Predict the structure.
Amino acid sequence: MKNRTILLSLILILYLAGCVSSQKKNASMVFIPEGPFSMGFEIDNNNEWGDMDEDPVHEVTLSPYWMDKYEVTKTLPNDLLISLQT
């Protein structure tokens, strides 16, 4: 009985530790909440500037997600790979 209690306690601790670490994100990321937004572009000018595949404007709802705060350029991974080669 004592071993079973210890085992269940250990499983609970490991489970809770996993929950806490999964909620912690990198400081360079921002949380984007779920919600709707208007997607598309309605061409409403004399020259009809714009791409036809952007029409019609429609509402899209996204689930919550994390996004990098800063743009990642192709030079960043390239610099990393070069530094790993030396």
Remarks:
- The helical segments are 2-23, 75-85.
